[in-house]
Amino acid sequence: MSIPRKDKIYVLLQFLVFIGWLFDVESLKFQISENLHSLGFLAAAIGFLLILVALVQIGSKISPFPSPPENARLKTTGAFAFARHPIYSGVLFIVFGAALWLGSGFKLLISLLLYLIFFLKSRYEERRLLEKFSEYAEYRNDTGRFFPKFKGRI
Predict the structure, then answer these.
(1) What is the dihedral of CA 109, 113, 114, 118, to 10 degrees?
(2) For residue 47, with 0-12 CB atoms within 10 Å meaning exposed, 13-18 middle and 19 or more buried, which class applies?
(3) Of 94, 131, 145, 147, which sits 20 to 30 A from 76 (CA to CA)?
(4) pLDDT tens per residue across span 109-148
(5) Where exactly are the structural domains of the chain?
(6) What is each CA distance from 95 to 28, 102, 112, 140, in whole angstroms?
(7) Is the pTM of this model over 0.70?
C-alpha cells in the first residue's frame, strides 16, 4: 500500500512545527509563578505518560501517517476510551506544559500551531477511519477528540 500524498504533507508539517518548537525568541519570554511553573512541568509529565500508555496499547501498529493501514484494528479501550487521539493529546500536554514551564511565549505560539495541525490531521484521519470501520461513528460520538467528553449534568 502506498502512502497517500495528504498523509505525507501532514507528517511533514508536523515535523517542521516540532523543529520550530525547539527554537525560542528571547523577547517572547515571560516570568511565571512557581505554581504555574510546577503546573507546566506536571502537564508535560502527564503527556509523556499518556503517550507511553497509548504506545504500549498500539504496539507495532504505530505510524505517523493518518490513514489506517490495511491490517489495522480499531482501538477503543484503555487510553483510547478517554480520547480518540491520545498520542496527539500527550504531545499537546508536553508542548504546552513545557512552554509554560520554560516561560516561552514563542513555544506557546508554536504549540497552538501544532494544535491546529493535529486538529486538521485528526479530522482527515477520522474520515479515513469512518471509511474503514463502521463502528467508528458511534465511538466518535462517545469519545472526545483530544480530551475526554464529559457527559451528563454537573
Answers:
(1) 150
(2) buried
(3) 94
(4) 999 999 999 999 999 999 999 999 999 999 999 999 999 9
(5) 30-58+77-147
(6) 16, 10, 9, 25
(7) yes
